[in-house]
Amino acid sequence: MCTQVIAKMASTPARKLQQVTYEKRLEIVQKLEAGVTVDQLVAEYGLAKRTIQRYRQNAISIRQNLENSNCLRSKRIRPLLHDTVDTRLYTWYLEKRALGDILSDSLLKEKAMELHAEFGESSNFAASNGWLECFKNRHNIRLVGVYGETADANELTAEKFQEKLRQVLIEENIDEEDVYYMNETCLMWKALPQKALFQGEELCLSGRKIKKDRVTVAFCANATGTHKLPPLFIHKYATPKALKHCRHCLPVVYQTEQNGYINEVLFNDWYTNHFKPSVRQHQLHQGRAGKVLLLVDNCRGHTLAEKAREDPQFKQLYLPSNTAALIQPMDQGITAKCKQIFRHKLLRRVLQHTNGIKQFYGDYDIKDCIDLIAEAWKGITSTNIQTSWRKLLRRPPVDETYESEDTNTFIQEDLQEFQDTIQYNDVVNWISECEKEERVITEEDNMNSEHSEIEEETDFIFSTLATWTETQPDFIKQFANILIDYYNQ
Q: Which residues of 38-49 are buried (b: 16+ CB within 10 A; e: fewer)?
């Protein structure tokens, strides 16, 4: 008998072991319910008869598992070891999201440990990075950025602002021709690809760090690309020697600030004395009138004085924070392209300089930088600008016949005559390095600005406290003076 069983098993072709996804299992259950027989499904899927029958018996649990979209491709679903912690943490996460709180990985892990200490079924639990990643994948949670800012929250914020902007344009009857956006950027105006710029004696420069002398440049244009204002150029020196005889005829709006970045005074001066007159002149040239909307990022340096807000023809609107990559026009490639063109023109001047890079640095001044950035801004076309506004204004894609310019390719072709002097890859790496350094500088400036705002607010609080205690009993004055003295020290 045993010999016959073994012979039968040997003569039976081995069935290939399969693991079927839950998506496929649901498909089999639906066919069973539609009247397909078990034998037909065995032949179609190559599964055992008992397996098909088991899927029919477990149809309810299969559907329940598939309520989570992450299980569609899963072949096996393991029960959670800490189901209570998982459920309560997700509920807490949803509550915080509804309140608009910013969450991070560390906050989630800290809360998970608190919940486990209160509701955990076992003591063997550690909110490790691996556990956290599985938790976020189960619930489709995405946290990005240093501070754990949620991508979903940013997208929702951007969508709300898009709708708000649309309503403002309709209610105020503002034409897209009269919608402007202004944004500033850091520019390291002396940085050069010294590592591989020249051969021979200039190789001694290759070990030097990149020059980080910087200025701030602000660009402003309307949504149709028909009006580009001269760049706002902020330098830390008021009267550099290079501008001694040409300060009145520069192709930019030249301003000075000790720290080199924009503040309320500079912004209000630009808005009142340059932006508004330039826009009025543009409207007059086109023979029309209408309300004007200026969009700016939400930061203290863009705050308008009360007097500047009194003009009913001009309106200002702040874009929400942390939406640069999503909707802000200048961050849709305009600023990056302008900087690339600037650096291409700067590099061409260096390569055409006959006396080497050391002599070039001796001749290159802030006036040259101003001229180059003005030329680069002219190189930004109206089509470039229209395309950059597409996300914010929810415009349809540009005409398929239009192909955006590849600035890197443009630089590569234009520097062909210098191919024996410098490699194109070195130029690309240099541009990338500059962009990285400028982002770091900008972040540091923002942090310094925020720190300064906090100090000002704290000074105001303690000043108010000192005034308030003058009318209070002596024991209150004593305690208040202790705090004030401690803060002043």
A: beebeeebebee
